[in-house]
Each structure stands twice: as structure tokens, then as C-alpha cells.
Design a protein that fits this description.
Blueprint: H1 2-14, H2 29-41, H3 44-54, E1 65-66, E2 71-72, H4 78-92, E3 96-101, H5 128-143, E4 149-153, H6 158-167, E5 179-183, E6 186-188, E7 190-191, E8 206-208, H7 214-220, H8 223-229, E9 234-239, H9 250-259, E10 263-269, E11 279-283, E12 286-290, H10 297-301, E13 313-322, H11 323-329, E14 337-341, E15 345-346, E16 352-353, E17 360-364, E18 378-381, H12 384-387, H13 402-412
Parallel strand pairs: 2-18, 3-4, 3-9, 4-5, 10-18
Antiparallel strand pairs: 1-11, 6-8, 7-17, 9-13, 10-13, 11-12, 14-17, 15-16
Helix pairs in contact: 4-9, 7-11
């Protein structure tokens, strides 16, 4: 331990982060071990560069943004059955796995626990996890196959998530055979001077690295290797907070296979030209998602000859990947985006600081930043009322909240 401590001191001195060991001697032995592990696993060069980027003026590049082609699922006509049969065959052959990103807490919903454990208020009182599991079991029964379910948790909620599944007997899904947990990556939070923060527990304060960390987490955790051993070729990735997410969709699978692409995504048409959502596009000829803040008013309102918005396909975090594409995307970290957040921390004198305004930088990667790794992808427009009922805000917000999700769910399943 002494040698490790000296090595950590040397690393911290090199990067001006010596304060991380200020309270080391006050920690219990197990926490001393955790802190040294954290220090040894931090990419300080990356943190240094990320901090430097916060000081640079973020300029919009001279990227050429153009519309992307899409298919409307309900205007495929004769092709619908063609795509459906191709996808159905692949699903029945056991080539599909589902991944749910469930690293968040239900704080914004006033819920104390992992977001996936939240009850949206149905008469059944089923949690988001159980609603998603129900749809997987239903699909498995329909196609005569078990769909392996991989759940990405965070360090913060991993234990509580697994305990919730154990308590509920995995909702009838087979543990260790059809359900697997892995943990999302994290990055330290830093203050406005570039110093890494110490959390209330005396350890380095870390935050999840965004949904773009999914690829690297799948690879590093050995999950892609496990999938390949199971004969998986296609992986659907979605969020835990969409209670209508359709993880098993033979039409989406069929489109991807038929068109020979390694990525296929679902979209819903924007509710209005200025809805604050990211939309699919091509950036310098490559597939991409452009944030609403990057779109000019003219682009937002532009329509084609049929009156359809040129930039109207919203990214709803419903994406299908060939497993080789995931491994390629997970080989290197994606670019990180910075967010300025409020973070409680312990200062160098051991005082607890509870800020009333943002005081720290958090770094996140976005899943769609990896789309540029492929030359082509398929976009399939689906109906919002059938596949997109997210639970992101408290009911007081009136949009993307438990009430709106509950109403959509009940209407879709005829529960009224």
C-alpha cells in the first residue's frame, strides 16, 4: 500500500491534483483502497485536455448539413411484409439482443431509487423495468425465442437495481441465462480551476459519462464477447424511461439487413418545426444527429415538395446496431460534451461545500456522435403514440411526464 501511495502522489503532483490525498489518512482502510484505485484508473491527460476545452470558445464548424433519407414504417406498403419476414427470420434464429440504458436515478420524478424502479401509476403498479420486461417476454413468446436482456446500470444504482430484480424474481426472466448487468463508465467532475472534486464520502466525485459511453462499456465489460458467444449479431439499444419502447421489431431488423447497413434507427416526426429535439441529418455526407440549437430557423421550417419537414426526424434513442459496429465504436472514446452543474464537494480544508449555483464541469459523450463511423444508416419513422412515451419530467411539467406516458401506454394497450 505504501508503494502505491507514493506512486499515486507522484501522478497527482505531475497533474497538480495533490489535494485528492489531503484527507487520505482520515479514511477507513477500505476507502483508502478505493481512492487509490480511482487515482490509478483516471486518465489525467484526458481530464487535463477536457478542462482546457472548457476555456475554448465553442465555434460552430463549417460543416455541411443536409437532410437524411428515411422510410415511413406505415407507408412501406408491399415492402412491409418483405422487411418483416427478413427480420422475423433473424429474430427466430436468436440473432437479437436488447440493451437498456438504466444508469439514472429517479430524482427529477421525486423518486428515491433507480429510474427503472419507478411506478408510472398504472393500476398494475408495474415499474418501468417490469413494463419493458413484459414486452420482451411477449416478443419472445411470439417468435419462439428468448431475447437476452443486457441492462446498463451506474456505480450509483447498480446494487439497488440488482436487489430490485432479485426481490421481484427477475420478473420471470432467467437470471444468468437471459439477463445480464454491466456498469456504465464514469469521469471525474472538476471545478472551474481544473481541480478534480472530492465527494462527501472522501472519494473522487465522478459522474456517468453519458449515453455515448454505452459502446465502450459494452466492450470493456465483456458483454459484446458474451453476445458473440451466444450467436448475437444485432443489438437494440434503448432507454429505460420509454415505457412504449419496441425493442423487438422485425421491420427495423429487416430494413437493416436488406439495405446492408450496420445501424438502423427509429424516428418520430417533430411535433412542430421548433420542437427542442435532436434530428437526424447528414453532416459532411455522414449520418448524424443535429441538436435543435444548431438548426437555423430557415432549416427548421424547410419542407420538401410533399410538405414534410426536411429536418423533421427526431432521434428518440431507439437504435439497432450490428455487433461489429458496436465493437468498432467502442474501440475509442467518443468526443465529450461539457455541462456546467451544481456539485456538492469537500474542499481542501475538509469543509462541505453545498453550492446554490453551478460550480463544476461534467463530461458526457452522446450515443449519436458515433453515427459518423458508418457511411450509411437506415432511419425508420414510427408513430409517436405507438412507440415513444418517455418519463423524463415530473407531472408539473406537463410533457414527457408520468401522466403523459401513462395515458399513451393505456391507450396503446386498450387499458381504459
Amino acid at each position: 500500500m505504501k508503494n502505491r501511495l507514493e506512486e499515486c502522489k507522484a501522478i497527482l503532483k505531475k497533474y497538480g491534483q495533490e489535494h485528492l490525498l489531503n484527507h487520505y489518512e482520515k479514511l477507513e482502510e477500505k476507502d483508502k483502497e478505493k481512492l487509490l484505485n480511482q487515482i490509478e484508473n483516471i486518465n489525467f491527460e484526458l481530464i487535463k485536455n477536457l478542462y482546457a476545452n472548457t476555456k475554448k470558445e465553442q465555434k460552430q464548424g463549417e460543416d455541411k448539413i443536409t437532410p437524411i433519407e428515411y422510410l415511413d414504417k406505415y407507408k412501406l406498403y408491399d415492402d412491409y411484409k418483405y422487411y418483416e419476414n427478413i427480420g422475423k427470420k433473424a429474430i427466430q434464429e436468436g440473432k437479437l439482443a436488447a440493451v437498456t440504458m438504466a444508469g439514472g436515478q429517479g430524482t427529477r420524478l421525486g423518486h428515491n431509487g433507480p429510474k427503472g424502479t419507478y411506478d408510472i401509476g398504472l393500476d398494475s403498479h408495474k415499474s418501468l423495468f417490469e413494463l419493458l420486461c413484459d414486452s420482451l417476454k411477449e416478443a419472445g413468446k411470439k417468435y419462439g425465442v428468448n431475447i437476452p436482456w443486457f441492462i446498463m446500470t451506474s456505480k450509483e444504482n447498480n446494487k439497488a437495481t440488482i436487489e430490485f430484480f432479485e426481490k421481484n424474481k427477475y420478473f420471470g426472466y432467467e437470471k444468468d441465462k437471459n439477463i445480464f448487468f454491466f456498469i456504465q463508465g464514469e469521469l471525474p467532475m472538476i471545478d472551474t480551476e481544473g481541480k478534480i472534486l472530492i465527494g462527501e464520502n472522501g472519494l473522487i466525485k465522478e459522474a456517468a459519462d453519458g449515453h455515448g459511453g454505452i459502446y465502450e462499456s459494452l466492450v470493456k465489460s465483456g458483454m459484446t464477447k458474451k453476445m458473440k458467444q451466444m450467436g448475437i449479431e444485432w443489438v437494440f439499444i434503448g432507454g429505460v424511461d420509454n415505457c412504449l419502447v419496441k425493442m423487438v421489431d422485425p421491420v427495423l431488423m429487416g430494413v437493416a439487413i436488406s439495405k446492408g447497413v450496420t445501424v438502423a434507427c427509429k424516428s418520430v416526426v417533430k411535433a412542430n418545426p421548433h420542437e427542442k429535439v435532436g434530428v437526424f441529418c447528414k453532416r459532411n455526407g455522414k449520418p448524424n444527429v443535429i441538436e435543435y440549437s444548431e438548426i437555423t430557423e430557415e432549416m427548421a421550417e424547410a419542407c420538401d415538395e410533399d410538405g414534410e419537414l426536411l429536418y423533421g426526424e427526431s432521434h428518440i434513442l431507439c437504435n439497432l446496431f450490428n455487433i461489429d459496429a458496436i465493437e468498432k465504436m467502442g474501440a475509442n472514446p467518443l468526443p465529450y460534451h461539457v455541462a456546467f452543474k451544481k456539485a456538492t464537494y469537500i474542499d481542501k480544508d475538509g469543509n462541505l461545500v453545498v453550492p446554490d449555483s453551478p460550480n463544476a464541469y461534467k463530461f458526457e459523450a452522446f450515443l449519436f456522435d458515433a453515427f459518423g463511423e458508418v457511411d450509411e444508416m437506415a432511419v425508420l419513422r414510427v408513430k409517436r403514440e405507438e412507440e415513444f412515451a418517455p418519463v423524463k419530467n415530473a407531472d408539473s411539467a406537463g410533457v414527457d411526464c408520468p401522466k403523459t406516458a401513462r395515458d399513451l401506454y393505456k391507450k396503446f394497450y386498450n387499458l381504459d
